[in-house]
UniProtKB/TrEMBL annotation:
Polysaccharide export protein N-terminal domain span: 53-139
Classification via InterPro entries: HH_AprE-like, Poly_export, Poly_export_N, Soluble_ligand-bd
Lineage start: Bacteria, Pseudomonadati, Pseudomonadota, Alphaproteobacteria, Hyphomicrobiales
Protein name: Polysaccharide biosynthesis/export family protein
Keyword Signal: yes
Record-annotated Soluble ligand binding domain positions: 145-180
Coiled-coil ranges per UniProt: 315-356
Species whose genome carries this gene: Aminobacter carboxidus
Keyword terms, alphabetized: Coiled coil, Signal
Occurrences of domain AprE-like long alpha-helical hairpin (ranges): 194-372
Statement: the UniProt record of this protein carries the keyword Coiled coil: yes
Length: 437
């Protein structure tokens, strides 16, 4: 961050023993871009720490959500997709979310998990369902952030997770180019911001690859690679990928379990049909013995032929029932074979999807690694051509304007690594004096 070592030495005594980053000649070139923040920086650092450890993201106006609702029907043993409710929705100016059948639901200040729970409970209560529908709510697009001041392209920009002041400046094209040598400063900031973005993307792809490998190996959990496991952002990435793994495995397990239940029902049906068939065979055997006796009496003229015909007709009907039972048994066995084949197809499809996802992830990881190498070169070039004179540079200050839970806006003094939240306004100003050394 800009001058963080120098500020911590001057303001926060706790940080005096921390190792300071050095360049090849042992100096601290980035300290030249520090603000004279004075005693208020410890408060800023505390705010940054509290933001980074905040709880689940709280939704707000202009957030766009992707919602999907499904229902597991226990009686039928199948999933029901609520396609009329599923889709993309935007939280309106009133802070409410409007869904078919659910109506308007307050969303501002709530998490996606709370919205999902409300949707499922509302649908169950409204339609009197025995099984509660499960809603999946994800943020498809965060509400934008805004950047103003001495920026190349001030305005409104789409928000991305893990956004910091430095990354936001990079997205806005860096510092405004001027006749005072700000081009080198802007190029350096842009390169550093792009490098930070690519570094985060590289970590995410590395964690994703490990998760996919664990799924392909049939594991239910995984750990980040040793070389990145200690980095602060990795723990959250591992948690996200673990949730994806658990959701996918749960879905596959439920579908396989439904097929197993179907097979069990069919097998019991086959056993019942077999018992009925045995009973019919015994009745046929008895009827044939009876017919043999009647036929002998008919030959002697002791009984009429109609009784013989009646016995033969009864035997024919029982034999027809046996054929029907055998046909039903064959049909049940075919259904069992179909269920087994469907289970095999589900597993094969899951493995195929993972293989394709892994191939894509590896390709993206290689591309990001190449881009990181390029950004390192740009950083080295911009750093090497930065002005050496103290008067050639100017101090840069950052202020965040953030709306609190009470609806009132407050200003927060920020530094490079201060996290940005959706809806924040970043004010960037360049002072007339030289940067603090």
């Amino acid at each position: 961050m800009w001058g963080a070592p120098a500020i911590r030495r001057g303001v926060c005594a706790v940080a005096q023993e921390r190792t300071k980053p050095l360049n090849h000649n042992g100096s601290h070139p980035r300290q030249r871009r520090l603000l004279s923040l004075g005693g208020g920086l410890c408060l800023t650092l505390a705010i940054s720490a509290s933001i980074s450890s905040a709880e689940d993201y709280k939704l707000g106006t202009q957030d766009k959500l992707t919602i999907r609702v499904v229902e597991w029907q226990t009686v039928e043993g199948a999933f029901r997709d609520w396609s009329s409710v599923s889709g993309e929705y935007t939280i309106g100016p009133s802070g409410k979310l409007s869904l078919p059948f659910v109506g308007e639901t307050p969303a501002t200040g709530k998490t996606t998990a709370e919205i999902a729970k409300t949707i499922g409970k509302t649908l169950q209560d409204k339609f009197g369902l025995s099984d509660r529908p499960e809603a999946s709510v994800e943020v498809a697009q965060f509400r934008p952030f805004y950047i103003s001041g001495d920026i190349q392209s001030p305005g409104q920009y789409a928000y991305a997770p893990d956004l910091t002041v430095l990354k936001a400046i990079s997205i806005a094209g860096g510092m405004r180019r001027g006749a005072d040598g700000a081009r080198t400063e802007r190029d350096l900031i842009t390169a550093e911001g792009s490098h930070a973005v690519l570094s985060d993307e590289q970590l995410r792809l590395m964690v994703t690859q490990v998760r996919i490998d664990a799924e392909l190996a049939g594991k239910t959990e995984f750990a980040a690679p040793m070389e990145i496991a200690s980095l602060p952002a990795v723990a959250g990435m591992v948690a996200n990928e673990t949730a994806i793994m658990a959701s996918r495995q749960k879905k596959l397990t439920l579908r396989l379990q439904a097929l197993d239940n179907l097979k069990g029902l069919l097998e019991r049906e086959i056993v019942s049909l077999g018992q009925k068939s045995e009973t019919q065979n015994r009745q046929i055997e008895l009827a044939r013995k009876e017919l043999s006796g009647i036929d002998t009496l008919a030959q002697k003229g002791l009984v009429v032929n109609t009784r013989v015909l009646s016995s033969e007709r009864s035997i024919a009907e029982m034999e027809g029932k046996i054929l029907d039972l055998e046909t039903a048994m064959l049909r049940a066995k075919q259904d069992i074979s179909k269920a087994e084949q469907e289970a095999i197809d589900l597993k094969n499809d899951a493995e195929s999807e993972l293989a394709v996802e892994r191939q894509k992830t590896v390709g993206e990881l290689n591309a990001v690694t190449l881009k990181l190498g390029m950004q390192k070169g740009l950083i080295a070039e911009a750093g090497g051509t930065a002005p050496a004179a103290a008067g050639a540079e100017q101090a840069i200050s950052f202020v965040l304007v953030r709306k609190g839970g009470d609806g009132k806006s407050k200003e927060i003094t920020a530094i490079e690594d201060t996290p940005i939240l959706p809806g924040d306004v970043i004010k960037v100003e360049r002072s007339g004096g030289p940067l603090v050394r």
